[in-house]
Amino acid sequence: MAELSGGSEAVPVALWPPGEAPPPFQYSPESVAGADGELEPSEVTFPGCPCRRSSCQPPECPCLARGLSYSGQCLRLPEQQEQPFSRPVFECNSLCCCGESCQNRLVQRGLRLRLQVFRTPRKGWGVRALEPIPRGSFVCEYAGEVLGFAEAQRRIQAQAPQEPNYIIAVREHLHDGRVMETFVDPTRVGNVGRFLNHSCEPNLLMVPVRVDSMVPKLALFAATDIPAGEELSYDYSGRFQNVAGASREHEPLEEENSLRKPCYCGSRSCASFLPWDSSLFSTPASSP
Predict the structure, then answer these.
(1) Are 275 and 237 in contact (CB under 8 A)?
(2) Tens of pLDDT along 98-113?
(3) Closest CA to 27 of 169, 141, 125, 163
(4) Across the chain, which distance is largest between two alpha carbons, in Å?
(5) Are 202 and 223 in contact (CB under 8 A)?
(6) In degrees to the nearest 10, what's the CA dihedral of 253, 259, 262, 268?
(7) Cis bond upstream, residue 17 (ω within 30)
(8) d(C-alpha 41, C-alpha 63), whole Å
(9) How far apart are CA 180 and CA 62, in angstroms?
């Protein structure tokens, strides 16, 4: 069976059907610095923890100052936590004194599940599981070029309406009112995550996970038990299981509806269109 990652993943990424392949791109298991050079995701700026045990525990470990993020090899989902919001996730890093078997190292270990990129009837390429995935399991990262806002907006506005858009904007709302933004574009450089389709009733949840610095890995976890053969999907808007009472996306202007792309997820609550981010997709104002 054909393989997508060129051997760069610990587990092969299968392709279906035989003899077909998506348009070429550079496969990278992890995110890389974008062409604008604003952010370097591989730079280690967090200090390591002093723990000299096989697996770190709160409250002694500074990496776990906000509590345990994982239970075994699974993410502790929002309803398993005390707070009614998504708690930030920090993993131990290369400067930490704990061992590689530390339970606070999960996303950094990369892909461990058998996945297949396949051609769908209406949505182009998609991703499905080749094995059962238990709820809370790490599935894959959404990897690509990490961009600053200006470069992300420039690329969006340079796209033709019929071109696929892979750029994702993740906004994290902090307790003091600040908003942290992360823009990842896997169009030219990316991994299996770039083929995941949107669903209004998804089976994956995206969580920013920080390992080496404040530049997060955009990690996708199973939101439910997923049987082998099921297509994997997440909510491009980020609303799904994210923040209690999270506001829905702003209604686009009537003239913007022509730029929106239809949603073919087929769920009972389908919104008919893919999520809309006006801050990136808005066209520049014309000169007087």
Answers:
(1) yes
(2) 989 999 999 999 999 9
(3) 141
(4) 65
(5) yes
(6) -20
(7) yes
(8) 18
(9) 22
